[in-house]
Amino acid sequence: MSFRLIIKRILFIFTVLVLSVPVMAQYRSIDQYRFEAGITGGSSFYIGDANYVRPFHRAEIAFGALARYNISPRYTLKAAVTRASVGGDTRDFKNKLPLDKQVSFHHSFWDLGLSLEFNFMDYGLPPYAHGYRWFSPYIFLGGGLTSFKDEYDNARMEFNIPWGVGVKMKFANRFNCGIEWSVSSLFSDSFDSEELDNPYQFKDISGYKNNDKYSIAKMFLSIDLFKRKHCKY
Predict the structure, then answer these.
(1) What is the per-residue pLDDT across 196-233, written as a single tens digit (0 to 9) for each?
(2) Would 13 be classed as within a structural domain?
(3) Which domain holds residue 57?
(4) Quick one: which of 114, 109, 28, 63 has its CA closest to 221?
(5) CATH code for the domain in which residue 112 is found
(6) Model-wide pTM > 0.85
């Protein structure tokens, strides 16, 4: 299955989820917290011409903050900012670049993103509510910006599409914790290095397939804020 087809399917699912949000509006009237704020920490790695097969190769530390607006027990808008680093070296793998060229790089960057989460269970309801669950797996898709400096120390900013999966759990009434794994697909093939911008000079290649990506696996801890007023639904 091509990467472009996967992206199309993800976008289709995302559209269906967005259009379904009004159906879930009935849940707004019960005891819920409107917002959630917290911190994140984990590991980041790069996927591209200098690492095309090995997850968590040359993994670096990533940390940041997040804020969620709970639309309903099934839908949440999440804004996140993450400081992370990635690196790679073509000598780590057996594939050869033209003219036996060898390239290495290391970038620290900021990731700013906004995404829509879909919880597979009714999450965030009070214990007395029907369908109450203290945990839920979820998926998400969104849009974001990646800010970094290239090998020539030039400031650059790239659009990205973050998507991924996670599990969230509630404890001590207002606290949440969880784990999340995301992949951010960039719109260029030079995030790693200008020398690795389509190094094999493929023609008519899918841009999505050839562009660079990075992945972040992280844990989060957050607290619920601003309780909604109770009324019947």
Answers:
(1) 665 555 665 555 557 889 999 999 999 999 886 654 43
(2) yes
(3) 3-227
(4) 63
(5) 2.40.160.20
(6) no
